[in-house]
Amino acid sequence: MTGQPSQTIRVAVLGADGRMGRAVCAAVDAAPDLDLVAQVRAGDDLAASLDGVDVAVDFTVPSVTEANVRTLVDAGVHAVVGTTGWTDESRGRISDHLAARADHGSEVGVLIAPNFGLSAVLAMTFAAKAARFFESVEVVELHHPDKIDAPSGTARHTATAIAAARREAGVAPSPDATETGLDARGADVDGVRVHAVRLRGLVAHEEILLGNEGEQLVIRQDSFDRKSFMPGVLLAIREVVSRPGLTVGLENVLDLS
Ligand SMILES: NC(=O)c1ccc[n+]([C@@H]2O[C@H](COP(=O)([O-])OP(=O)(O)OC[C@H]3O[C@@H](n4cnc5c(N)ncnc54)[C@H](O)[C@@H]3O)[C@@H](O)[C@H]2O)c1
Ligand SMILES: O=C(O)C1=N[C@H](C(=O)O)CCC1
Fold first, then answer.
1. Where are the domains of the chain?
2. Residue 160 DSSP code
3. Which atom of ligand 2 is nearest to the CA of 115?
4. Burial class, 238, CB count within 10 angstroms (exposed 0-12 / middle 13-18 / buried 19+)
5. Which ligand is nearest the CA of 229, by number?
6. Prediction pTM value
7. What interface predicted TM-score (ipTM) does this complex get?
8. What DSSP line would sit under 221-242, residue for residue?
9. How does pLDDT run across 62-92, given as a tens digit for each residue?
């Protein structure tokens, strides 16, 4: 529960049977300052599983994650959320919910990050920095075929950051003369085209293509193994206890200066 967490942070993992959940349980188990006290699976009663929990880590599915986070906030449990599918609206609702609880003295922190991999966070950051210098920009994300959402949360976060940087710099939309086609131009995320590839053998990958007359910059990151997300997840667990309110993106926790 909130308040002064004890020396050891007591952690619950939601989605403990999933690909990420299993990796997070193993990583928490191996960390000397963290104690894995609950593993929550589909069908379990979440509210009843939170006794003595300081931080809950959610790697479930897009359709349940918002309700999970509300339950955690109501129980005074900090949340680290890796599940994707969040929108401005759903994040806004959680932010409002946290603010209402803060009025009553609650200091719960919620950290939502579409990607805990260092290479992905840096790729997004570099892309947003580069975006204003190029006429064209498109994002390609590539994942394993068992992923249920597209485009990926990472690609949506990247496109939104690129769009914001270009808006701020007054850059025109990427040129595109396409008149016809079979839906081949990808999703329009905030004015940035995002393409999703699903291929057996992949884990999680992203490429940002930036083009000018006569030149191209490609920023690419690859997560070959889910172990790549674990340092970021563990950092988020340790940080969220002292960050009340909503934090979106691991870039706001890492020192990238
Ligand atoms: N932020 C990141 O760095 C990062 C990295 C990898 C995956 N992800 C995202 O994490 C999510 C999970 O990915 P995955 O590959 O582990 O998926 P997965 O399908 O392997 O695991 C999801 C698990 O959640 C369980 N589940 C469903 N509803 C539940 C509920 N109400 N309570 C508890 N458990 C519930 C499912 O039974 C399943 O075991 C996806 O949204 C994915 O995009 C994010
Ligand atoms: O395996 C997945 O699913 C992943 N999802 C995230 C996303 O949607 O961005 C991040 C990487 C892995």
1. 9-112+227-252, 118-224
2. H
3. 10
4. middle
5. 1
6. 0.96
7. 0.99
8. EEE-SGGGGHHHHHHHHHHHTT
9. 999 999 999 999 999 999 999 999 999 999 9
